[in-house]
Fold these 2 entries.
Entry 1:
Amino acid sequence: MGGLEELHHIAPVIALLAGAALVLLADLVSNRRTDVQWLALLALVVATFMACWQVLAGIAGESALGGAVVVDVFSLYFTFLLLAVAAAVVIVSSDGLQRVEQKGEFYALLLTSTASMVLLAQAQELITIFVALETTSIVQFVLAGIARDDRSSEAGLKYLLTGAISAAVLLYGFAFLFGLSGTTSLAGIAEFVGTGSEETRLALVLAFVLVAAGIGFKMAIVPFHAWAPDVYQGAPTPVTTFLSVASKAAGFAIVLRIFYAGLGGGDTFVAEDWAKMFAVFAALSMTFGNIAAIQQTDVKRLLGYSSIAQAGNIAVGLAAVAGGSTLGPSAVLFFLGTYAATNLGVFIAVIAVSKSIGSDDLRDYAGLLKRSPGTALVLSLCLLSLTGIPPTAGFIAKVYVFNSAVQTGENWLVWLIVVAVLNTAISAYYYLRWARVMILDEPRETVAFRPSLATNGLLMLAGAGVLFLGVVPTPLIEAARRAAETLV
Amino acid sequence: MLTAFLLIPAIGALVIALLPRGRAQDARWVALVASGLAFAISILVFVQFDRDQAGYQFVDRFEWIRAGDAGFSVQYALGVDGLSTPMVLLTGLLSVAAVLVSFNVSLRPKEYFAWLLVLETAVAGVFLSLDLIQFFIFWELELIPMYLLISIWGSGRKEYSAMKFLLYTIAGSALMLVGFLVLGLTAGTFDIERLTASPPTEAIIPLAAIFWFILAAFLVKLPVFPVHTWLPDAHTDAPTAVSVMLAGVLLKMGGYGILRIVLPILPDQAQDFRVLLAAIAGFSVVYGALITLRQRDLKRLVAYSSVSHMGYVLLGIAALGPVGLSGAALQMFTHGTITGLLFIMVGLVYDRAHTRQISELSGLMHRMPLIGVVMIVAGLAALGLPGLSGFVAELTVFLGSLEAHPVATIAAVFGVVLAAGYILWTVQRVFTGPPNERWADLPDANQWWERTAMGAMLVSILVVGIYPRVLTDVIESGIDPIAAIVQRGG
């Protein structure tokens, strides 16, 4: 078993947890609310330095703590992604937390959740995965309900109930995997699957359907999505942001790890089974999410359904992975990266608007261009990116994922892509309607407003990122490719 | 050089965006300089184009998304051949005309001219792209400026029309992407030149499905019956300049796409479905003409006549021979100039009379002789009078298609008769006839920008009408290789 000297492999996680503890202590002694926010930001910066140090120290590829965790390009990709998202959420929280009194607890929980997600991205053994995943979830149940009003409490409770069931299902699936292979390590499971025979096929299929169902809750794919619209709408918006970007990314990270590293990617005898499973999830998620989103008038609820539809798009990439596409994993990673930038932009704009006009109603976005041009422009750009219209990052991401599915050479995956592109056309309707309302409609009130300096800066950064990755996608594509290569 | 053609309007748009608020009226001058420069480059390309050499010229390319990183390669690749050179020229010409006729736009002029220039870049990108994914990017890029131009600066039910345009195009092009991706997998490249050199013989889904996936987008854009309904709405509610661009160059993207991508890469499928395509074409011509006869709004009338005229393009394509294809390409150019001019004239009339209802207008010839004469010339060109460019193009189409599709061709010739009907009838009702006191004070086309735009279009119509070789030379050098592929496939 690994000793304490291997702890530096999880240095970012430790930094974040220490930060969480300090935030709680500081909250007791300090009365100034910005203090805890700065401290939380500091913890994230330290964690980022730790991650950079991991890159420079050349420990990539080493597993540690008895094989429970690994530091590789894949985990580092997600570590940086998650830290960036968490930092953005912390910064924007100064504008988005009016409804929340317990700010200290909020930041501490946020850091804890981020820490366990980073751990999740590093995990390569079932028990670590389960513990990390549950820590994330339990913290998020509290976060969803932290505003302590009716809507927020309802969101927290709904999230908790669905989450608890999902955890049970996931554990059941892990039990099957352990029972079949006699080990909890993903490498060991991969070995078993690689030499597996037809007799174990049914049990294996059952196991990974259960696992996918358990984690499907995190990714918000149909039919495990029911919590998403309510929680998105009810939770404080910074929490929603965190759920929609970070939590979803972590869910997909661990699914990639389990299914690609653990179930042997696309070349095992069960590969086609799980390819078809994800194809069905993808088709359902896209179609249901988009059709339901059309009727929404609350923007946070709309984004809830939109995130279900987008999860469907990413699941297309998972089906491609199983179909043996060598592009699949990096396509999923690239999509998650661009999706993070895009959705952050959308949510930051929503927070800015909500703070200034006190409403999340789509109709109150009328004429936003005249009231706050910068916010309206970045938000419109991000909506174009979500639709997948060039020259935005979302376009490249969609082409990348769809192309990875076509590259498998399986003709049923081409039909899945047909479903996907038709869904893109449906999604254009509600994404662009939102942009239209902002640009064309007459505002109800004409009072101009400006988001706070920090929020505005983040907004511009997200907008620039969406545009930059749409025109110069190569750097992120290369990072995604290198991260994907370490999975095998 | 082609990169300059692509970038100059975009740079112009950027300059306009950076203009200080107080100098918003200068946006039109920036737009004129940018589109003028682009037009000059397009003339240069046209003149320097080597007519005896097949293949792409003035090629600019580099690898945009590298295969080593993404596992697939997307190029930035521009080039022109005999098919795209006239289209580039047309884009340059009509963009200048569009800027000129918008000189008196006073509502948010900065944004207006910036989007107009972005539109030019997007359309130019479609005609210049030699890579399927790049082609698709420019194809979609055109949506944003078009949507905003119609919905902000349009009239009537502008937002409805703009949304309809947007959703039709997105729905049409969604499947095109699937077709492109499958082609890319099959051939291992998205490069149009390489795909043309070795068309795929089989793919993971039936080639016929790919054919229809891709063709659907182009048929919507062309447009032909039954996917044409977005066109009259978009045209009627768009500002004049946008109607000019829409009729003049955007519709051509459909015909161009069929000639550039569908026919050379999927020649066997084109042979299989030629009769169906000819039937759609013939029906569109007659149906469009009949509907045109019934229009009471001058602009809607011109819009529906486009449906009829673009039917000729598809008819020429369906003939699948060198003559028919040349006719189709020629028709795209001439329709661009003729209908562009018609929309300019309708816009001028509307600017003055503030109505487009044919029944309210009468005897305008007495008040605005210049507008009247130019309108009549453009109308005669549209109905195919010998000596004007429309005649050459339509005749070539009919010559090419008569043997292959006699019934559809005869139906289409009947469309010409109907065209004579609706155009002469309209001219009679609007321009001749007793002068109406209500229009006694209307000025003629008296601004230099209006006259310049009219003059430039008129010259191109006359030149091509009297000496078509200036264009057919170039077109044939581009069409012949395509026709050879299609006929070999059959």
Note: Chain B has 22 helices and two strands.
Entry 2:
Amino acid sequence: MSIRISAPDTASRDEIIELKALIQHPMETGYRRNNRGEIIERDIITTFECTYDGDTVFQARFHPGIAANPFLTFYTRATRSGTLEFRWTDQNGQSWSETHSLSVE
Amino acid sequence: MEMMKQDKFNFMLDRRRLLTLGTAGLVCAAFPMSTSAEAADADKAIRDLFGDGELNEGRVTVDLPPIAENGNSVAIKVTVDSPMTQKNHVRRIAIISPRNPLAEVAEFQLGPRAGKAEVATRIRMAGTQTIRAVAEMSDGSLWLGKASTVVTLAACIIG
């Protein structure tokens, strides 16, 4: 599963930083039919969570109305040097994650 | 000669594009509108998510392109006017569609640590519609913002 994160490596204390997170996923809606007329089963990522040194700073819940390869831009306040973890979980409980180290001066 | 080649190439491209459009149209037609949500479904989705509190207009700005060629992926940005402090911040934001098969599109949980009440993502739009975004503040108040997009290649519920 390909994941792309855009986040600064360094920030000053209390600075509001922009975080971008993208994961490659079809986000199959469950409303489409294949060429034999059968419904293509739903296969979507349902939750996303970003933690900062273990504290949750942002969460998202996705429905089929989110486009394929879900992309998010959100913000957090840089409090101290630490690890940002980005985690996606699909409807079956399978999850994928990526971390990013942030150094705060 | 070079010119002719160019023209032929353009023609083929157009032809292919037309074919694609035509196919998409047929597939769309195969799905009756009854499968899509309506304004009443959007209202219900908001109530299910946020309860029966008063829904105030304002403080929420929804940015969408005025026209989207492809409804399968439309960039949306929701900004809420909030200082995002411990005492006064946005708790939740939901994106609601009155025309997609499912009214709920996404929900976001923020907090004072977000620093800024702004979220952007990409959504599917099953046709021209007015997307709503609702924000729940830390004092429990609910705020509503809207924006419309004309979807030229009706994304229908395909793809």
Note: Chain A has one domain: 3-104.
